[in-house]
Structure formats: C-alpha cells, structure tokens
Amino acid sequence: MATRVIPPRILRNLRYNTATKPLKSVQPPLSPSLSPSPCLPPPTSTVLRPAATPDLNFHDVEKLFSHVRTTALLRSAAVLHATAVEPLVDFGSWLLRSNLVNVPGLRELIFATVRATFYDHFCAGEDAPTAASKIQELNHAGLRGMLVYGVEDALDNDACDRNFRGFLRTIDVSRSLPPSSVSFVIVKITAICPMSLLERMSDLLRWQHKDPSFSLPWKQDCFPIFSESSPLYHTRTRPEPLTPEEERDLELAMQRFLELCQKCAQSNIPLLVDAEHTSVQPAIDYFTYSSAIVNNKDDNAIVYGTIQTYLKDAKERLLLTVTAAEKMGIPMGFKLVRGAYMSSETKLAESLGYQSPIHDTIDDTHECFNACSSYMLEKVANGPGGVVLATHNVESGKLAAAKAHELGIGKVNHKVEFAQLHGMSEALSFGLSNAGFQVSKYMPFGPVETVMPYLLRRAEENRGLLAASGFDRQLMRKELGRRLKSAVF
C-alpha cells in the first residue's frame, strides 16, 4: 500500500493499546481446523465448535435495540422487508440503470425516492462530515465506524487523482473524531490505480508464479500472493512486460497509496484494503503486502488486507502470508469476509473451461470462514497483528465470540474487531457490542449519483444476504411489538 515509519509514541497511544485482560471462560476448549499445505507447519488450532456464549444474548430485544429510536427501527424494518423481495430489487436495479434516470423531473423523483429509502438506510451520507455525525451517533450506541468513500473503479489517472483526494478527506474527517469512534479508513485500490493496469499487473504476477525465472523489475519485496491451489486460468499466455507509460502509472498509484498510508500512520488510524474479484486481486494483494512490509512496525498493523473465504484457496493463502510475515517480524492485519463476487467468478471460470474458484457449498464457505477466524484469533491473542471478523452470519459470530472469550480477548484488546455493513445485521452488531467486543459498521458515503454504482453492486452481490435478513426482521418486529404494547398498556 505505501511507506511510512510509525513512531513508538504513536504505538503507545490508547487507541491501539494491545494489553489484554484474560476473561473468565465458561466454554469448553475449541480446537481449530485449518488444513495447511504440506509445506507449512501445522497451525496451533483447527475448528470452532459450537458453544453457548452467555454474553451474546439475542433474547432480550429491549436491551438489544435500546439505542435505536422507534422511528429508525420502523424504517429499518420496512427497508429490510422491501430488500427481501427479489422482484422489487430487480425492478429497482433495472430502473436505476435505465434511460429513465436521464429524463428531467423523473430523474429528481427517482433519486429523491432512493435517497429517502435505501440510500439513507445503507449509506452514511453525501459527504464525509455528514458521515462523521452518523459515526458519532453510532458511538453513543457503543459501536464504531469504518468510513468508506463510495467510489467504484477508476479508468484513468484523472479519476484516480479525484478519488485519491476523496480518500485524503476521509482520513482528515476520521482523525477529527474521538479516537474511540473510528476503527478503520477503507481504501479501494481499484479507485486509485487504473483497472487496466491492475489487470496487467495481475497477469504478470500470475505468470511469475508459474515461472519464477520471469523477471518483474518493478516488483518490491512482498508476502506470498498465491498458493499451490490458487487459480491461474486468467493468464493463459505469457504477458508482455509493462510499458514505460504503465510503469509511470504504477509509480503514480504507489505514490497515492504511500501518502494515504503515511497520513493514516500520522493519525494512528489503520488503513484497510478492500478485496475485489480474482482478475485483479493479485495486484491488490501486491499493493497491500509490499506496503505492509514497509509500514507495519513493532506490534501493530496499520495496513490491513482482506481475505475472501468463499475462495477455495483462502485458507492456504492466509497461512502462507501469516507465516511469511512472522518470519520477517512484520505484524499483519486481515479482514476476513465470505466474499461478494460469486456469480461473476463462476461465470468467468466456466467461460474459460475451469471449475469455479468458489467453494462448492455454502457449508464449505462457512467452515472456511470459521476456521480462518479461529486461526487469526489465536495469532493475535498470542502475538502482534490484528483481525477484523466481517460477518453477518449469527452462528459465525457466536463461534468467534466463544473462541475469543476462551482466549481472553475482549473489549480491552483492540486487535480484534467485528464488523457488519451499515444497515445490516443490527441485532448481531448490538449483541456482540453488549457482550464486550469492539464492533464497527462499514459506512459508505458520497453523493447519491456517485454511490449509485456501489448500491447497485451491493444489491446484486448481497441478494442472498438481503433475502436472508429474517433474523433481524424477526427481532425488530418483536421489539416494535413490545414498544407498542408498552405504549398502549
């Protein structure tokens, strides 16, 4: 991601105090389940077994939603019910992509409707200061925020520069907030480096993995990007080296990323790099890992990467990267997610005559996420680095909470963060927070027109998640019924 040195005085800052206070565990020991590559030492644990966690309570809905106003609860329930109706989501997506949004008058009506409903529910506002005020509201409820400048892929350097300035403003706003209220600033490498260059870099990195003698003059020190099981079908022929113009564009992109990392280091706010689809992910990992080597110092990780655990090679890549980081004495941070490109990844693989890189079943994905969570929790409990467990799955939340309690990791250890999308899985967020964990909401912001592509992509990628939001809707209905009954009687 970039370069910078972290002064020791910053590392002693309260925000990232890594002192841990063992918590009394009432759970039986949990054993992990990572299946390491034969060339790697076995991990110290393997599978997260289901275990009751008394502190993770979803039964007391009054306590669960105590910080949510009734009007906000009503709107949330209504929006979640609407997004669970797939034909409605399909119609909305079609409408926003149609030429009707270019018709004067109708355009304003469509955008006003979107702004008052889905946009206000899933986004944090049209600019960073507005998003900051929402973060402060969240903080009063015991949650934190991850500010996300809601831009999509950049096609040229002009777009990259505009997006870069937006990310810089995001850091400025984040550093102006109370230290306890902001956990991360999110960056999309696809927004500060042209997509065509990321595709070219990924091809070159894949070919070098096939042929280690293949020279990449621009490549800096980096952790392993691929495992033996990583898909390489995107690059079918030997790619040409980067042109002088592409090397200049790469240097510009690295400079943008360097400045973002330096500013985050000065603000003592870690920078989390979002994952993308596999055609460009190798280049994104290269930005992340080469920058982590330079920027992550002592016991704290400033640069975080993302592992999408719906990929079959996720566990092996995680093990390889963590092992390499440990050997180099570099603290590494990861956000663990399930993933968001299942349909497009499967279609691309099939078009090239290969099996999908995505796990064959949802249960395999759950097992992979839970195993990676257990592994990273043990790593950060006993050493440097950090982990963000980004999940909307209640069972995964319970399992990780039980594992963290067993290891003595609670609110006093800021190396562990749970996270959910803004407007999603409110019950899980508040339940984990009430149980004593740091919990953040992923909060995209930007003008409706700018964030529209983000909203459309979220609607399509999270179709199953939106339709499966029944747990939240059920608890919201229960709490609304309780409040109505209390008001009447």
Model description:
This protein is an alpha/beta fold and 489 residues long. It has a single domain, classed as TIM Barrel, CATH 3.20.20.220. Helices cover 51% and strands 9% of the residues. The chain is built from 19 helices and eight strands. The protein has an eight-stranded parallel barrel, surrounded by six helices. It is globular and about 75 Å long. The chain starts with 7 loop residues before the first helix and ends with a helix.
Layout of helices and strands:
Elements: H1 8-11, H2 61-64, H3 70-83, H4 86-97, H5 106-122, H6 128-140, E1 144-149, H7 157-176, E2 182-187, H8 189-192, H9 195-210, H10 244-267, E3 271-273, H11 281-295, E4 303-308, H12 314-328, E5 333-337, H13 342-351, H14 362-382, E6 386-390, H15 394-407, E7 416-421, H16 426-434, E8 439-445, H17 448-461, H18 463-467, H19 470-488
Parallel strand pairs: 1-2, 1-8, 2-3, 3-4, 4-5, 5-6, 6-7, 7-8
Helix pairs in contact: 3-19, 7-10, 9-11, 14-15
Domain Proline dehydrogenase: 133-464
Family: Belongs to the proline oxidase family.
Organism: Phaseolus vulgaris
Write a concise synopsis of the structure shown.
51% of the residues lie in helices and 9% in strands. With 489 residues, it is an alpha/beta fold.
Distance between the termini: 58 Å
| Largest sheet, strands/sense/barrel | 8 strands, parallel, barrel
Task: Assign the CATH topology.
Answer: TIM Barrel
Structural class from helices and strands?
alpha/beta
Count of individual domains: 1
Q: Flag low-confidence runs.
A: 1-54
Tell me the Rg in angstroms. Answer: 22 Å
CATH architecture level-2 label: Alpha-Beta Barrel
Helices and strands, in N-to-C order? HHHHHHEHEHHHEHEHEHHEHEHEHHH
Tell me the number of helical segments per DSSP (H or I, 4 or more residues long).
19
Query: Strand order within the widest sheet?
Result: 1-2-3-4-5-6-7-8
Could you estimate the helical fraction of the residues in percent?
40-55%
